[in-house]
Amino acid sequence: MQRWSRGGLCPIPIILTMASSRRFAASKNNYYLMVGNPGAGDMINSTGMIRSMDQVLVDLITEDEACLLYMDRKNDIQLEVLRRALEAAGGSIDLLWLGEDLGTQRAPMISKDLFRKHIRPRHQKFVRPGKALRDPRHDALLRFQQLAYEDFIEMGNHGYRHIAA
After folding, report:
1. Of the residues 16, 68, 86, 100, which has the maximum number of CB atoms within 10 A of its CB?
2. Is residue 72 part of a domain?
3. What was the pLDDT predicted at 135?
4. For residue 157, is it within any domain?
5. Which domain holds residue 38?
6. In this predicted structure, what is the pLDDT of residue 90?
7. Each residue's pLDDT expressed in tens, for the chain with a length of 165 residues
8. Contacts of 22 (CB under 8 A, 6+ apart)
9. Are 102 and 44 in contact (CB under 8 A)?
10. Conformational region of residue 36, where left means phi above 0, alpha means psi within -120 to 50, and beta covers everything else
11. Structural domain includes residue 81
12. Residue-wise over 52-78: b if at least 16 C-beta within 10 A, else e?
């Protein structure tokens, strides 16, 4: 383990093949296992890295087809990777780590209506794979979670951890 500058332990990500995933998960039965990352399920930030944040926000408001198609295709790939990881781990995964940055330090970045129109339906697709977790709960890491808490609970998610910047 490496140490962070604050003195805490930094987990080391382990890259596994599909064949070794089940063996690894079985050998770590006493550990809390996670699949995902801050970019899994993320729409705004990850798309902003390609199109710029300003452009993504404009694209969401104007319903730009290219932007929405990019988000959908990126999600399709992430969902398939997630499905395969959960399948390979054979029910040993405890936590699905999803990310989305819905706000700034001071306020939401988008309206609740815009969230419900474009982000929620795309996040909903990540709920189904989460049902394969050992203890089916989700951890959605949100910067401004108040905007979406009720929606995430309605979608079938059960647990959240708010990560503040």
Report:
1. 100
2. yes
3. 61
4. yes
5. 32-162
6. 78
7. 333 344 444 444 555 566 677 777 777 777 777 777 778 888 998 999 999 999 999 999 999 999 999 999 999 988 888 888 888 877 777 777 777 878 777 788 899 999 999 999 998 888 777 666 666 555 544 444 667 777 877 877 666 555 554
8. 88, 89, 90, 92
9. yes
10. left
11. yes
12. eeeebbebbeeeeeebbebbeebbeeb
How far, in Å, CA of 139 to CA of 54, rounded? 27
Q: Assess if residue 7 is contained within a domain.
A: no
**Both ends of the chain: CA-CA distance in Å?**
24
CATH for 107: 3.20.20.210
Q: Determine the Cα angle at 147 with ends 61 and 75, to 5°.
A: 60
Total domain count, the chain: 1
Question: The tokens 């599909």 sit on which residue?
Answer: 18
Distance CA 139, CA 158 (A): 8
